[in-house]
Amino acid sequence: xxxxxxxxxxxxxxxxxxxxxxxxxxxxxxxxxxxxxxxxxxxxxxxxxxxxxxxxxxxxxxxxxxxxxxxxxxxxxxxxxxxxxxxxxxxxxxxxxxxxxxxxxxxxxxxxxxxxxxxxxxxxxxxxxxxxxxxxxxxxxxxxxxxxxxxxxxxxxxxxxxxxxxxxxxxxxxxxxxxxxxxxxxxxxxxxxxxxxxxxxxxxxxxxxxxxxxxxxxxxxxxxxxxxxxxxxxxxxxxxxxxxxxxxxxxx
Length: 252
Ligand SMILES: C[S@@+](CC[C@H](N)C(=O)[O-])C[C@H]1O[C@@H](n2cnc3c(N)ncnc32)[C@H](O)[C@@H]1O
Prior knowledge:
Elements: H1 6-19, H2 22-31, E1 38-43, H3 49-54, E2 62-68, H4 71-74, E3 82-85, H5 88-91, H6 95-98, E4 103-107, H7 115-128, E5 131-135, H8 151-162, H9 176-186, H10 205-222, H11 229-237
Parallel strand pairs: 1-2, 1-4, 2-3, 4-5
Helix pairs in contact: 7-9, 8-10, 10-11
S-adenosylmethionine is lined by residues 2, 4, 9, 44-46, 49-50, 68-70, 73, 87-89, 107-109, 112, 167-168.
């Protein structure tokens, strides 16, 4: 079980897909082996959005292994790909899961990870000699139009929440991209990053509504001063959908 619902992952998939770096995907595709099947490991695969995005852009043939701790989410992924219901705390200690993989990838996962987990991930990828591609990692930036007075304080509280333990140790949250880059570089990887900011338009009204409601809950959970929860929530939810743009920014 996880905190992520299939409905939420469905809602974000089109925006994720439009926001991802095509250049980094192309660069990774270019260094993968040709003329033989490539084995790919997708960590925190959910319902398979990362495979759906990448499969048509990477060399063929491919063999995927999707790993997630939530069986219900995995059961919605295509049966064309192998999957394992496994906690990533254990997965990252299992060298055999990584062995032989040409690519280790994840989308919308790294900000949930701790320093210790990232270190173990880097070690497993390095041992396997795998290329890596991590997409859509929240890096602490958000921006609203129209701006409101509380935006900055709200962002700080949300970012505090991002640093709490989500099951992989105290999360790196907004620092995850920078820390993962340092660790992979120290392990001898050539690292490239590119922004993959969400830019939410009125068409994604329901996504905006759920996102802002989630931020309001996270902010309320982290403030030390008494807060009128109803007011905080209603203020957030009342942001006019037609004017709201949010950028949970995600350098890959
Ligand atoms: C934000 S979702 C991203 C899912 C998918 N990669 C996507 O882009 O739609 C994060 C995923 O990581 C999984 N996850 C989080 N912590 C995990 C853990 N400790 N072990 C295994 N899976 C985990 C969740 O179940 C969820 O499917």
